[in-house]
Amino acid sequence: MGFEYHAKILTLFYNTKHNMTTRSYHLLDKICLSADVALRTLTGNPIGTDRAAPTLNIEEAKLSEANKHHIAGLMRINHCGEVCAQALYQGQSLTAKLPEVREKMETAAVEENDHLKWCRQRLQEINSHTSYLDPVFYAGSFAIGAIAGLAGDKWSLGFVAETERQVVAHLESHLHQLPENDERSRAILKIMKEDEQQHATTALEAGGAELPQTLRKLMSLVSKVMTRTTYHI
C-alpha cells in the first residue's frame, strides 16, 4: 500500500467523520498509516481541514531583525509543539482500545494539522525554519502516546487533556511576548489556542481522567526542555 493510498484514507476519514462506518485495520495497515502521517508532518505536507489561514487579509508589519528573530523562536516552539501533539495522537490512536476514542484522536490530529501548516508558513514568511529537532521530538512523543494508550483509554484521554492545557498556557504566554504590531502571528496563535482548549474539553467529556500531579509536573519539565531547545535550533 503506497503513501498516496493512505493519504486518501485519511482524507476520506475527515470528510465523513460524522457519518463514518467502523472499519477494521490490520496492524501493518496502522503502521503504514502512522508512517505516512509522520512523513507528512515532518516534511510540511499534512492533511488538514482546508480552513482559511487566520492571516488572510492581514498585512505584514514592518519588523526589525531582532523582532523577526524572536517571533521565529516562538513560532518554531509552537510548530514543534504541534509536531509533538501529532505524534502523541498517532501513538495513542494506534493503541487505544475503544473505536470512539481512536476517532476522537484522529479528528483532533487532522484539525491540528492546520496549525502545523500555519506555523510553517509564518516561519517561511520571516525567512526562518522549523526546528531541526522535530524528528527527535516526534519519535519521543509517539512512544509516549503509545504507552498512554496502552495504559487505558481514560488515561489516554486524560493525557490529551493535560497536554492541551499546557499548550494553551504556552500559547497565552507567547501572545503576550509577540511584538504589538505582529498581527499575522497573533491571529494564528489565537485560533490555535481556541482549538487546543476545545480539544482539552472534548477529551475530558469523553471520559478522560485527571492525571496525578507528579506526572503533570514531569510533562511540564519535558515541555520546558522542548521550548528552550527549539527556540534556538
Can you tell me about this structure?
The chain is mostly helical. It contains eight helices and no strands. Mean pLDDT is 78; it is low at 1-22.
Write the layout of secondary structure elements.
Blueprint: H1 3-15, H2 27-43, H3 65-95, H4 99-125, H5 134-151, H6 153-177, H7 183-205, H8 213-230
Helix pairs in contact: 1-2, 2-3, 3-4, 3-5, 3-6, 3-8, 4-7, 5-6, 6-7
Q: What average pLDDT do the residues reach?
A: 78
Strand content: under 5%
CA distance, first residue to last residue: 35 Å
Poorly predicted parts: 1-22
Q: What is the 3D form? A: globular
Short structural summary:
By secondary structure, the protein is mainly alpha-helical. It has helices at residues 3-15, 27-43, 65-95, 99-125, 134-151, 153-177, 183-205, 213-230.
List the main descriptive attributes of the protein structure presented here.
233 residues, mainly alpha, 8 helices, globular, disordered N terminus
